[in-house]
Amino acid sequence: MFKDIFRILSDVEMLGYIFQGFLHTLVITLIAAAIGLVLGFVVAVVKIMPSNKWTRVPKVICEVYTTIFRGTPVALQLFIMVFAVFAIPGFKPYAAILTFGINSGAYVSESIRAGITSIDKGQMEAGRALGMNWLQTMVRIILPQAVKNIIPAIGNEIIALLKETSIIGWIGATPGVVTFDLQAAADTIFRSYPNYLASGIIVGCCYLIIVYAFTLLVKYTEKRLKKDER
Amino acid sequence: MNDKKPFLQVKALHKKFEKLEVLKGVDLDVYKGDVIAVIGPSGCGKSTFLRCLNFLEMPNAGEISFEGKIVFKNERVYFKRKMKALKTQKNYDKTEFKALEEQYLALKAIEKPIQKKMNKEIDLHRQKVGMVFQQFNLFPHLTVLQNITLAPVKLKKMTKDEAEKKAMELLKKVGLEDKASVYPNTLSGGQKQRIAIVRALAMDPEVLLFDEPTSALDPEMVGEVLKVMTELAKEGMTMIVVTHEMGFAKEVANRVIFMNEGVIKEENNPKDFFENPQDERLKDFLSKVLK
Ligand SMILES: Nc1ncnc2c1ncn2[C@@H]1O[C@H](COP(=O)(O)OP(=O)(O)OP(=O)(O)O)[C@@H](O)[C@H]1O
Ligand SMILES: [Mg+2]
To answer: How confident is the model over A121-147, as a mean pLDDT?
Structure first.
């Protein structure tokens, strides 16, 4: 096994696949995460807004959205989005990334909402009682406190997303296209060096490196935020 | 005092939570400089009443005027209810219904614009009606000074410099000027509450509402907060104070109110209130709290 790992790692063509896979996994995850963050934030805010005649319909839409995307497998969502909703030639890879983004947005919105609702009700009341409106109080009082709870949760969300993107090759992945991720690299390496364990360990280490680096980043951010207080 | 006009006037205020009727018609005239102590058994609606005055809770019915202007008015709800009740009867009187509906619509024409205006001006109203909470509700992510200056600056009442100058003056007054740059979680309960009072004062309110300001405090810290409140009262601040501190009610307030079962059962000056209570429940209540 170690021999196979060594042979793969000294094969320039294989190294190229690994590098490509590494890069693409990162790119797919980061774009999907960005979409998820923006979407998740908007949805969370809509869900938290006081209920009135203007917010009622958006609230229902957001509720339906999170229910559907959290309640069905992401592979199925990929299947429907890529082959039915966005069945545009050449758009497949982007539809896939978009799907991961939309899916992640549903989870992120729940993390953000949980972070916001975990802040004591008295904080909003105190802000409002001073004459600040809902938005001012949200931005100046609630969100700065909620961020401390939200960052770690979103960090975990992105790590889960990173691992989920490994099914993207399933819609077709050849070297050179963005869907050629780490998992696709493992499959391709296996065809030249038919040892599951060897290719698996190499790619697994790549995933671990990204996840670990990301975890450190989240921890660091958390610490910075904690230091601001006190 | 009676020839003066009340600057905060509450009429027949009603508030329900789902099926639970908490306020069942509260009437109160507040004059400039009044210090009103509100006492009553737990759950009788004292907090709810106070919170209705700055619309942290929206009343269901009644009228609130502030500085001569009606800020909240809803009486049509009664007619709506009568109409509904009438409709449930078989062969109800159509002309009676018509009459009710007319009254309802007439009131609606008056009340709807007030309501619309209020929705827009609710934040302005709250700037003039400050509130101090039992749990302080200081902002933990801001320093003491930032806690105090955030709203006045944000709401463009003052520039940052003015607000900070004023904040330091107020902090000095409550003896906490050395705490300006610390975060609230380093303070004791009594200090927190004094900061909370300063934060409310920084907005230059016309009236301050206190909801059991000393109830969350260790006994040895109650005094320092009451002292600040007493000073405020002496300076002529209009205050409505829900409290269990009978000493404060007796010595500082000029009016004491007993609330029970969603209404004001008794009101008097402190001397007569405590020496000569009329309401049976009040006598009972006082015998328990005064021991
Ligand atoms: N947001 C709410 N939703 C439902 N019920 C409520 C709400 N707020 C208060 N109540 C109920 O209304 C009643 C009156 O509450 P309120 O807090 O006004 O009483 P209180 O006189 O301030 O009592 P305490 O001395 O315990 O503070 C209580 O039965 C309470 O359970
Ligand atoms: Mg209360």
So the answer is: 96
